[in-house]
Amino acid sequence: NCIDWVIKYNYGECFSFYMPHGITADREGNVWVTDVALHQVFKFTPQSRTQPALVLGEKFVPRDDDYHFCKPSAVAVLASGDFFVADGYCNARVVKFARDGSKILQWGKRSNGRFGDSAFVLNVPHALALAEDRGELCVADRERGRVACFRADSGAFSGAFRSWLVGPKLYSVAYAPVDGGRLYIVNGPRLSAVPSRGYVIDYASGRLVDTFAPAGGFSSPHDVAVSPDGGSIYVAELDPHRVYKFADGRNGTKEPGVNVTHAKPTATVGK
C-alpha cells in the first residue's frame, strides 16, 4: 500500500537546518522543529514558513542554562501557547516556556551512574506527549526504557510506565484522549530479543491494549504520532527511511502479552 504524498509546504526553505530531529504542529497551525546540531528550537507560523518566527538557543553553542540547549529533541505545545522542550541528548531536562519564549520552569537531572529510585533522573528525554485533558506531560525516557509523566503546571512526578514487553529502550510516545486516555509508544531499533513494534497502553491502568507493526516488524522506529481521535497512528522509521500510517485497531483492554492483535499499516511513504 505504498502511496505518493503531495508536499504542500516546505518549512525553512530559505533557512538551513543541520540535523532537524523533532517536529510538532500545534493547534494554531504553527510548526516547531528542534535541531540537535544547531542546539536550537524553531517556531514557524502559517505566515512565516521560510524563516522562523521564534528561535530559542544559540547556534552551535551547547550549554545547560536558561538560554541554551544541548541537542534538544522534541517540543509539545499547550492550548495556551506555552510549550515544553525536551533537552535532550546531553541535558537531562524538560524546560517549560511561556508562548513568548520566556522560561517558566524546568525539571529533570542526570544520572550519577545509578538510576536508583529517582523519578526525576532522565537519560535522553527523547519525545514528549501532552495529556492535556489530564494536565500532564509524558516523556519518552529513552535509555531508561520508560514513559515518565509529570504535572504540566508544576513538573511534579505523576507516574511512569515500564514493561519487559517493551524492552530496555523506549524511543517515542504519543497520547490520544480516547477510551479514558491512551499512550502510543515505540521501542526503537531491533537490537534485542524484544521485537521492534508499537504499543498502545491504557493511561490509567498501564495495561497493554494493542500492538502495531508492519509485516516483518519494524527495523528502527524513531518517532510516533497519533490523531486526536486515535483513528490514525504514524511511525517514522530511520532505516529504512519510511513513514507508516496505521488504522487504529482498538478492541478493548487486554492483559499484557495475551491475544494481542497487530494492526497493519494502511499507507507507507518512503523507500
Protein architecture, described:
It is a single chain. By secondary structure, this protein is mainly beta. The chain has 2 domains: 18-128 and 141-159, Neuraminidase; 163-271, Beta Barrel (Thrombin, subunit H). It is built from no helices and 21 strands. The chain has strands at residues 20-25, 31-35, 40-44, 54-56, 72-77, 83-87, 93-97, 103-107, 125-131, 136-141, 146-151, 157-161, 172-176, 182-186, 198-202, 208-212, 221-226, 232-237, 242-247, 262-263, 265-270. It has a 5-stranded mixed β-sheet with strand order 13-14-15-16-20, with no helix packed on it. A hairpin with a 4-residue loop joins strand 18 and strand 19 (242-247).
Helix content estimate: under 10%
Assign the CATH architecture of the largest domain.
Answer: 6 Propeller
In what range is the share of β-strand residues? 35-45%
Which spans of ≥5 residues are poorly predicted at pLDDT below 50?
Answer: 249-263
CATH topology name of the largest domain, in short, is Neuraminidase
Rg from alpha-carbon coordinates: 18 Å
**CA distance, first residue to last residue:** 12 Å
What sort of overall outline do the alpha carbons produce when their principal axes are compared?
Answer: globular
Number of strands: 21
Task: Give the count of structural domains.
Answer: 2
Give the averaged pLDDT, no decimals: 87
Q: Give the strand order of the largest sheet, numbering strands 1, 2, ... along the chain.
A: 13-14-15-16-20
Helix count from the secondary structure assignment: 0
Structural class: mainly beta
H/E element string? EEEEEEEEEEEEEEEEEEEEE
CATH superfamily of the largest domain: TolB, C-terminal domain
